Amino acid sequence: MTENMDERPASVKSVEVTVRILDSLTDSFGPVRVTDLARDLGMTKARVSRHLQTLTRLGLVDRAPHGGGYVFGRKLLKFGRAAIYRSNIVELARPFLRVLRDRTGHTAVQTLPARTGAMVVTAVPNEFEPGVVIQPGTLLELPKSPAARLTAFFERQPVDADHVRANLARYGVDFEADARGNGLGGISAPIFDSDGGIAATIGLVLSSALVDPVPGDDLIRHVRDAAARIQAEFAEGATSPLMPPREG
Fold first, then answer.
1. H-type helices in 132-246, by residue range?
2. Alpha-carbon distance 35 to 17, whole Å?
3. Spatial distance between the Cα atoms of 208 and 183, rounded to a whole number of angstroms
């Protein structure tokens, strides 16, 4: 017999409400107001506010600046980072990133999707490129980061889809010169999970001169090859319905 939710202990119902609140924050691309949470969860504002006060005290949610609602808290982000660094795709990709670094002579990076872009989880630097420093935890943001653009494109978020689609069709990667305004450019390729969602990107961070106007054929080939090898190990044969066919 199915247990009626109203008959469950108060502590269990409290946990369920907490999970539903965190789910709502996950699905939102910005701060969430109490009024909106109450409407979406079918609860009173007073009840939602009590839960948010507890979650704020525990560091699981934070008030957005200027009283603009609620966002993930610092402790929840800490938990998320710990889960990311232990995830299968991060560990699986490490040796391929080292090979990519060795074959190209440039810093190899892996990113995972983040709420507002792509977060660097692994960076394998080349010791002969002292000016290229990118730390795990760095958030790469739209519109110029190729990793962030790929993430947004495959998650159907607002992005210059024609630009991304054209680069993928012609080269199999996306790229950008001076992606962060520091004289460095990037090349990125997507990795998909078994359901066709974007699981990660891998690529290179290097001098803008090497990607302007287009990366060299060898650089593109090495990035594509590394992505294909990781894809085969992680989710063999998986791709996204949004991935355009290669030209030629």
1. 146-154, 161-171, 217-235
2. 15
3. 6
Cα–Cα distance between 67 and 181 in angstroms, integer?
Answer: 31
Question: At 206, which helix (H) or strand (E)?
Answer: strand 198-207
Our measurement of the distance from residue 92's CA atom to the centroid of its chain's CA atoms, rounded to an integer in Å, reads 17
As a whole number of angstroms, the distance between CA 42 and CA 79 comes to: 28
Helix (H, G, I), strand (E, B) or coil at 130: coil
Backbone angles phi, psi at 209, to 5 degrees: -60, -25
Unique residue bearing structure tokens 């934070």: 62
Task: Give the span between the Cα atoms of 209 and 231, in whole angstroms.
Answer: 29
Residues 16 and 138: their CA atoms lie apart, in Å, by 32
Nearest to 220 by CA among 172, 169, 150: 172
Question: What are 180's two structure tokens?
Answer: 């962060």
3-state secondary structure of 220: helix
Global pTM value: 0.67
Q: How far is Cα of residue 159 from the mean position of the Cα atoms in its chain?
A: 15
Rounded to whole angstroms, the Cα distance separating 238 from 248 reads: 21
Q: Which two tokens stand for residue 107?
A: 């810093």
Which tokens go with 47?
A: 């009840």
Per residue of the chain (248 residues), what is the pLDDT tens digit? 333 445 556 666 778 888 888 888 877 767 888 888 888 888 888 888 888 888 888 888 888 876 678 888 777 766 765 555 456 888 899 999 999 999 999 999 999 998 788 999 999 998 777 667 788 888 898 899 999 999 999 999 999 999 999 999 999 999 999 877 788 899 999 999 888 989 999 999 999 999 999 999 999 999 999 999 999 988 887 899 999 998 86
